[in-house]
Structure formats: structure tokens, C-alpha cells
Fold each of these.
Amino acid sequence: MENNLNIQDTASFDQRKITSKIERQQYWLGKRDPKLEEVYSKIAPDIPLVNVEHRELFIKKCRLYFEELVKSAEGVVKIDRWDEFEIVRMFGKGLNPTSLKTTLNNINFLAENLKPDGDVIRIVEYGPGSGWSTLMLRRQIGNKFPDKRIEIYSVDMSPHSVVATQNSLDYYQIPWQTEFVGIDVSKITNSDGAVTLLIDDFLGFSKKQPDNFFDGFFSSHGTAYLSEVEYGQLFEIIKNKGKQGAIFVADSLDPLYTVDLDTFHLVMCSINPKLAEKGKEYEYGKSLVSNSKYFPGKEVKKLIKVNNKESMLFYNWNHYLLSKWKIKYISQMLKSMKITTDVIEEYREDVYPSYLVTKLLERAEFSNWKPLEGLPECPLYITNCGFKLEK
Ligand SMILES: C[S@@+](CC[C@H](N)C(=O)[O-])C[C@H]1O[C@@H](n2cnc3c(N)ncnc32)[C@H](O)[C@@H]1O
């Protein structure tokens, strides 16, 4: 999969660089709703809120940024598997706090385990998608280490995902800069603490980096799309790129679960969240059969009602919106929830789940990677893993 972006690596450094612009960040500032964000931050602390009413605008801006990206470097091409529709899918994800909560927990776990040895903390993020995880990563690591300089390097081979991340960062006034295939990040100048976005594939990018350079590696539903062989190669490479004690944390879907939520239940729990508190944590529909190469023929359990800690955030938020008669807002959110659950069904067969990563790293050749204790608990359909590099 290396360098399948087909970007010519011939343009000069400056030509290939898109620097963040103040106007871009100012664009969203006047459009955000501080009152709504304040309420949301009480219901779902530390989770970014994107106003659903900005959906069309967000997608339009992504299109503009994409055109700009295509002009700025030769050979920026769309990746069919992660094309423009991915923005719609992933925008939807940012509208409800349930799936972001799991990512937040894993980011906090990464932050707790980091042991920076200098003034700079360097983290690689694999697969930012629409950038919700990038926003939380930047903020949580910054909060945990207020005196350090935080450098986030978010790598994604899809230019559509990268422009979506640019917009998400603009939405929260976080500066960014974008670099293309083949960059050694130690050669990049970054004076304003911008998040560096890199259009590259995970393995190709990792190989080009300096040794003993990074404090941590993070991926929420990104490295999960590597095959088992590629995952093994990634750990071989980053064993050299990470510092002694570097941390790797990732999460993924569990291919053996799918979610097809009962709309009536969603609506009732949104009207009265106490119903969810009293209900069973999970209720199941008719199982499916797995086509995943890792689990051929195995049972895939279908969840139709979910009343876990993460879904309570969604019910409580909907409840607030209903109490303010924001009916249009809530109906758009329910649609986005449907897109998010459809993604689970569409993507799960491809996923190499995090618990298999933990098993993979038990092999002798990966003995430098020690499993971390105390991983955050995930909902049934998500799984996570965490390791420390002992050189
Ligand atoms: C499902 S999205 C995850 C987005 C985000 N982290 C989240 O949780 O919402 C996966 C992202 O990983 C990227 N990706 C998948 N495999 C990749 C690879 N081998 N190299 C680079 N990017 C990859 C895709 O382009 C996509 O943007």
C-alpha cells in the first residue's frame, strides 16, 4: 500500500505547503453557538460539538479546500474507499457524543500513560478521518501537559479526510498545516503550534521518520483497516521511531457485533432518559453470519437497544434539544445516528480488531511492546488496545 497516493514528490517544499490562515479560522467563529456549546459541555464534557445546522456549509467548505489541495500539489487523487462520502459519514459521527466518548476515553488513557522526557511531546495520529479525534487529542494532551509544546502529526491517505480535518480544526480555531507524501517531520517548521496533517499512508509515512522521535502513537478506527501483516509491519517500524517508553493506543469496531437501533426506543429514551437507565444495557436482534476473513462463518450479534454510559450522553442531549423544541435539529441528529450505525455494518467486515492486535503482539518478535494495564472499558461493539515500548 506504500505511496499509492501517486503524488509527485518533485515540487519544492514551499509550494507543497498549505499554511493555516487566520481568516479560515475566523470563518466559523461567528457561526458557533456559545450557549449550545455550554450546555453540551455539561452533558458531554470534553467532547467537541459541531452544530448540525452547519452540515451543508461544512461539506461545501470541504469541497473548496479539496479544490485548493488538488491545485497545490500534483497528483492529489481521491481514494475510492475513503472518498467524499466519508465526510458525510464522519460529519455525522461528530454530531452525537456516543462514539466520540469512547475515543475520548482512549485519548485520556494515552495522555495518562505518556512520560515525556523533554519540553516537546510528539504524537502521531493514524487516520484522523474528519478530525474529531484530532481535536480531542490536541486538547486533552494540551490540558494534561500545559507547559509542554505539543506536536500532533495526523496522517491520512485520503485527501477528502484531510480537508474534513482541516475544517474541523478551523471550526475550533486550531491552526494546521498540510504536508504531502515523503516528508520527514523533523524537517518541518512549525512556529504556531499547528497540527500537522500529512497526506500519506501509514506505513510509508512511518518509515520516513527519524528514530527515537515520538512519545506516542494514537489511532481511533484508523489502523484498524490495516491487514494483520501490515499491522505487524507497522509495529516493526515504529519500534525504532518511538522513544523508549513510547505509548501506542488504538481502538476499532468489533467485527462480531453490529448495531441496528430501534428508532422507537431511541425516541422514547430521548423523551425520558430514565427509561434507558432502567433498561437492560444491551438488547439483541437476529444475529448475522460473519464474512470477515478473520472470523469466517462466526456469529455476528446485532444490538437493537443500547443503554450504556455512552448512549446516555446521546439521550440526555436529545432530551435537552427536545425541551427547547429544536425538532429540526434533533431529526437531523437522528439521521446522522443512522448513518453512523450504517457505517458500523458497512465497515466491520474489513476491521482487524484491537483484541487481535493484543494477541499479535504476544509473538516473540514483538517483545518490545508490552501491553498496558487498565485500558478504558468500551461498549460491546468497540474494542481497544494499548502498549508501551520497552527498548
Ligand atoms: C474510519 S476513518 C477514522 C476516522 C477518525 N479517526 C474517527 O474515529 O472518526 C479511517 C481513516 O483512516 C484512513 N486510512 C485507512 N487506512 C489507511 C492507510 N493505510 N494509510 C493512511 N490512511 C488510512 C482513511 O482514509 C480514513 O480517513
Amino acid sequence: MKDAADASQSFAVAQDAFLKTLAEKSNGGVLRGDYSRADAQYVVAQDWSAYTPSQHALWRRLYARQAALLPGRACQAFIDNLDRMQAADGIPDFVTTSKALLAATGWTLVAVPGLVPDQTFFEHLAARRFPVTVWLRAPEEFDYIVEPDVFHDFFGHVPLLFDPVFADHLEEYGKGGLKAMALGGLPFLARLYWYTIEFGLIDTSEGLRAYGAGILSSGGEITYCLSSPMPRRIPFDVARVMRTLYKIDSYQETYFVIRSFEQLFRDTAPDFTPLYARLQGLASLPADRLSEGECNIPIR
Ligand SMILES: [Fe+2]
């Protein structure tokens, strides 16, 4: 019993420190989620019956607006897998989606109160569990939200979990994250996640398309990233991505373009230990300019 009490006390201390760090980073120092019922892996019950009719209605509006923007902008795998989520009619029940996902690629969804510590996040991914925030934004946040909510996490991330190559890649990313923690590689790996899983573009025979969840769940960036002359669009290169800074409160200044999920999987498969060591001696690169010899990929 004493061991259990010690473990629960040390979790409470670690959770407190994590929440304090997040609160310092967030606007106004207040986090939206209720972390008081989270277990040691930051998992909570989704409590699907507690969503109100107006929250389901807001979800339907978000879903319909975003789904209408996908043709010609989202990669085909995302569009093809959207219907498998069966989530157009209201905030989905994660248990139902998890059953379909488990059958398709062996992944499940876990409900979380919001952002979770890096290590916890990586442990979930490494075990093919994707953490999805339970709360939905307010109506006045229809176009923009600071912290990821259930719409971003679910609509943006879940469709590609049905894609076998992407699903394998995300598991490997989780394993790589746990390794990076011991190697001082976290800032580099965070940039890789940002510029691929969240804001990645893919070159296809039909033209550039988005596969990043941050783009695909955004009503504005989904058109901006593919048609604005402002941002740079350059070929994906692991070392270049890992050196590039990013901003979390504006549209991206640079997008990195992969040729296929196979390329992403292959290029991020090697052991990053020597790369982290090399990058630690190099300056970071700003996102608002090309490096010498780089060219923009033309918009098609
Ligand atoms: Fe995300």
C-alpha cells in the first residue's frame, strides 16, 4: 500500500510541475482541460453523454466547413479515410472509432484532458495509442483556437491513422521520441513533428496537397499553404527540418514537401543519434527565408 501511495504522490508532484510549465506558456496562464481525473498516463473517460446538443451542432458545422475544403487540397489518403471515422453527425465516441481503427491498423484512441507531457505522449504513440483531447472549442473560436481541442485532434489526426504506412510511421516517431529524451534531441524531434505530422505537404501527380493535421483542421491555412505566394515550400530534408524554427501563433512561413509517406517513413527510420550530435553544434535556421541553393517548389 505504501508503494502505491508513494507512486501516486510522485505522480501528483510530476503532474503539478507539468501543468505549471504549460500554464506559463499559455495565454493567461489557464489551461482548458480538467486534469484532476487523469490517470498516470493522463487518460480520462470521454464521458460522451455529457456533450450538449449545441456542442454536437458546433462540431457538425466545423466538420462540414472543413470537409468541403478538402477536395483538391487534402492528400487522397486523408479524404479516402474520412468516412471511415463516421464522425460527420456529431462529436464521435472514441470507443466506436477505436474499434474501426484497431481493425484497420492496430491503433486506438485514448481520451486526454489536453496537452500531455512529452514522455507520456511518446509512450502512447509507441504503443499505437493516439491521445485525443475531450473538450470542444467555444463557438467564438470557430476559426482559430490556441490549444488543440477535440476537433483538431480527431478531424486532423485520425484519418491518417487508418493509413498503414502513416500509422507505422507514427509508432516509430513515438519510439524515437523516447530515445531522443535521453539524447538531448527533443527540440529537433519536435520540429520534425511540427513540419510533418502537423504542417506537412505532399507532392502528388495532381499537385501539392496537405497531410498535416494543423493544416487540415484549419479553415484558413488549408488554402493559404497551397495558394499563397508568401510561404516557402521546399523539399523535405530531415536535417533541414530539424534545424528550422517555427511559430505556433501564425500561419507557417515554410512548408516541407514529401513525395510519399514511404519517403517520410524511410527518411526518418535511421538512428538519429549522430544527427542530434551534429545539429547541437549548428545554429537554428529561421523559417522566413531560403537557405543558399534552395528553391521553392512551384504551386501547381
Ligand atoms: Fe495536432
